[in-house]
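step=encode ok
step=design start
structure_in=
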């Protein structure tokens, strides 16, 4: 058999055993035996979307990721293997997958037939080049005895605003899974004088979005985190454009033109994330909301609060995106939605069927009401849950009426820490608490004005903690009878080797919604 035919046959066999292998298109297959122009695994390796018996492995061939494409527009075979030891001697699965130019020579391998709740190591090979060895973990199966889960939630990593030092510490925390809640990249032109510099102009098409992701993926601390723990990801706005809403651009770009940009952004996101092949976008559409079960301990519903939402309320003043609104009746219109009818029904149906001890909503923003009152009339931020209050009310009412077991909401976006009690009636200080919320600060993006936001706290007694001056992440340990969240902060993002400390720790007791300071 000729070598080219052998490689294609090997790939086809691999795809029959392992979901997610690339199919051979019109492009011919390239064999990199003569070597690459530079190290091809410059963007590292990653894993994600863990299920009890499978997990996604990711890498992308990019010998010169920040320059013109240095690979031919052909398919390139990549070998992969999975082992139960870091030395890669006890191999339990292996195969070959094609890296195609249509996906920027990125690959995702869905390795099936693994043992639930176990650690595995994996590695890729292209020609004579070997990737770093990555580590990943499958989710425990229902009924498994593993009744503890250690996770982190992260968001908002602006490359120009600082180093991703928090990831260096996160990579050493021996976590089971990481939830990334949005703003993996930031769009926009480079700004001189910042700590680091974006490469290229403002992303608007597939080539420029690919360049922006490649830049972020070259960060050594981000690579280190991806290499040791599986990520479950969702997006917010900056993966496309600040404060966009469905097909509505913040800058009022016409619908067809903006959807073309959204399609390019979604494609680049898919190419650089360890998502399952079922998430592959179709034009400007990509279904990102999905659910994960970790034994009987916890079930996570991961939301997409950008793609299906209605446009922000009360924007008839010519301002696009989020803004402070006062006396805005439109934000209280029950026909408007943050999630869209289909996703909202999916969420409530899942909650109805859930048998998990802890039910977790992993989404992008602060869910608690934040009345920003400096005068007589309080203002509300139209881009967050306050701008879509009926959607929030429906979810919290459902939790209250169905007595959902131990609901916890996780959020990001605001570049600050928040610990809140969620209620169905924020006008009544004595109203029962129905869920607990933890919002994490940013990895590097600057936070809102601490002094100004502190002035709002007396009018929002359900907010137990707020801090916007520090960067970091939230680390959580979940056990059957207790949830503990530790607010982890780095000393600075202006230096790459800054230290880490715990700012505060909060606990939630099973059956008692509301966090208590430890």
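sequence_out=
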């Amino acid at each position: 058999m000729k070598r080219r035919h052998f490689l294609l046959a090997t790939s086809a066999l691999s795809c029959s055993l392992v979901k997610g292998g690339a199919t051979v298109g019109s492009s011919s297959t390239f064999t990199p035996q003569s070597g690459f122009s530079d190290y091809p695994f410059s963007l590292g390796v990653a894993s994600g979307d863990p299920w009890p018996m499978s997990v996604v492995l990711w890498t992308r061939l990019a010998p010169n990721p920040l320059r013109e494409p240095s690979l031919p527009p052909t398919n390139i075979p990549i070998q992969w293997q999975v082992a139960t030891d870091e030395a890669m001697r006890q191999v339990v699965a292996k195969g070959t997958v094609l890296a195609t130019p249509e996906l920027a020579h990125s690959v995702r391998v869905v390795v099936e037939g693994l043992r639930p709740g176990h650690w595995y190591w994996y590695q890729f090979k292209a020609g004579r080049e070997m990737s770093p060895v990555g580590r990943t973990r499958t989710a425990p199966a229902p009924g498994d005895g593993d009744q503890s889960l250690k996770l982190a939630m992260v968001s908002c990593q602006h490359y120009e605003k600082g180093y991703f030092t928090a990831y260096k510490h996160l990579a050493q925390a021996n976590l089971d899974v990481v939830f990334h809640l949005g703003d993996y990249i930031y769009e926009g032109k480079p700004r001189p004088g910042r700590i680091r510099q974006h490469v290229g102009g403002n992303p608007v098409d597939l080539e420029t979005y690919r360049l922006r992701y490649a830049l972020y993926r070259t960060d050594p601390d981000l690579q280190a985190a991806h290499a040791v723990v599986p990520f479950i990801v969702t997006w917010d706005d900056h993966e496309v454009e600040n404060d966009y809403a469905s097909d509505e651009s913040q800058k009022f770009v016409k619908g067809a033109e903006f959807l073309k940009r959204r399609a390019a952004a979604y494609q680049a996101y898919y190419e650089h994330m360890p998502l399952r092949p079922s998430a592959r976008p179709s034009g400007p559409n990509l279904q990102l909301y999905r659910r994960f079960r970790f034994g009987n301990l916890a079930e996570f519903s991961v939301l997409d609060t950008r793609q299906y939402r209605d446009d922000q309320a009360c924007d008839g003043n010519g301002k696009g995106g989020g803004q402070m609104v006062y006396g805005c009746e439109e934000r209280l219109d029950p026909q408007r939605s943050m999630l869209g009818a289909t996703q909202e029904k999916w969420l409530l149906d899942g909650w109805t069927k859930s048998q998990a001890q802890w039910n977790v909503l992993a989404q992008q923003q602060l869910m608690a009401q934040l009345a920003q009152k400096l005068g007589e009339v309080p203002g509300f931020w139209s881009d967050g849950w306050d701008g879509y209050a009926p959607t929030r009310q429906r979810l919290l009412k459902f939790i209250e009426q169905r007595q959902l077991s131990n609901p916890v909401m996780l959020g990001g976006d605001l570049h600050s820490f928040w610990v809140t009690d969620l209620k169905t009636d924020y006008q009544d200080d004595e109203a029962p608490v129905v869920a607990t919320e933890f919002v994490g600060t940013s990895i590097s993006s600057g936070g809102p004005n601490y002094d100004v936001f502190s002035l709002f706290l007396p009018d929002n007694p359900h907010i137990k903690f707020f801090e916007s001056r520090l960067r970091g992440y939230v680390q959580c340990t979940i056990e059957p009878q207790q949830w503990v969240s530790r607010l982890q902060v780095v000393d600075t993002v202006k230096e790459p080797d800054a230290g880490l400390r715990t700012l505060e720790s909060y606990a939630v007791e099973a059956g008692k919604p509301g966090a208590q300071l430890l």
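step=design ok
step=annotate ok -> The radius of gyration is 23 Å.
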